[in-house]
Amino acid sequence: MVTSVAKSRTTHSEPGYIALAETLAAGFAARAAEHDRTGSFPFENFRELFEAGLLSLTVPAAHGGGGAGARYAARVLGIIKADPSTALVLSMHYINHLVMARSQTWPARLSRKLARESVEGLALVNALRVESELGSPARGGLPATIARRTETGWRLSGHKIYSTGSPILKWYLVWARTDEAEPRVGQFLVPAGLPGTRIVETWDHHGLRASGSHDVIFDDVVIPLDAEVDLRKPADWHAPEVTQATIHTVFVAAIYDGVARAARDWLVTFLKQRVPASLGAPLATLARAQEILGAIEARLAVNARLIETFARDFDDGVQLSAGESNVIKLTVTNNAAAVVEDALSLTGNHGLSRNNPLERHYRDVLCGRVHTPQDDSTRLALGRAALGL
Q1: pTM exceeds 0.90
Q2: Domain count of the chain?
Q3: CATH no. for residue 301?
Q4: Do 198 and 279 fall within a single domain?
Q5: Is 112 exposed, middle or buried (0-12, 13-18, 19+ CB in 10 A)?
Q6: Which strand (E) or helix (H) includes residue 271?
Q7: Residue range 330-346, pLDDT digits in tens
Q8: What is the pLDDT of residues 151-206, one digit of tens each?
């Protein structure tokens, strides 16, 4: 399969990428349960994504990539729901390349370098921001990770957690503060595998078990002086980065909506095939099953409209607010969780058996609620805005 897909890498039409993703998804689905069971990282999925040209989907066409916007990238991620851990790692890579393409602060030399490498090989990038003491940077506070400026380069020390995709990343975008008298905060581009860098395999999670979201420790790691991407005074980071927030919303929504759709597909098959002796007919003939399935369809229809229109508006240059992005993330991820919970209500023990994928979909879909921004932050901001506070 990889060979035949690889022959299509020169196809740069967006519908062509959708077809490639659909081709790969079957193999991802076949391996997903084992990766979930063992917590192993799906390296083979990313080799196939590279051969299909899908790693560079959001790299600008001028640099040899697919040049896709948020709408088509979200559709690809929804298809890769076959393995949501893979989709999550891929989404972070896509987000960073879309941000690079639109950013006024990214050094052009660095963005071109990462774009070229993504086209030519397995060169994934993700931002490493979260720390044990800091929690999510979205809630404020200075990172404990410190970059010390020397005559020959920056020396970076710190401990990052929840570093999604760490086993395969080639580049880390590390959120750190400087040791200057008036510290600045921002991102440093760090190649993986430098002396003083180590991955500690701490990820043993309830859901998205194959995402490789381990700890990464930096112990006086030397990086060039021009490795800084965007350093600002802490107060200058208080306003949300609208481009990053919008893309993050669309992609996170697409992933967890995809998980819910996988659960819905399995449920439909189960309802048609399950024939209890006491009923003498498939569960699909019950009015209660039909009603609950109808409620599932309603939630998924809302999700589809929100994701599609929001992604299209972004691609069309419509001015979107970070607050609106947060509302969409909250709505879609909660709809997705409710879909899988409704499916479980109809299947009983069958749905919670590890012999069936529904219990895995349930564990995975719950992770949508912990992605930044968390629901409480979104609701608090909406309430304060309504009160004029």
Answers
A1: yes
A2: 3
A3: 1.20.140.10
A4: no
A5: middle
A6: helix 242-273
A7: 999 999 999 999 999 99
A8: 999 999 999 999 999 999 999 999 999 999 999 999 999 999 999 999 999 999 99
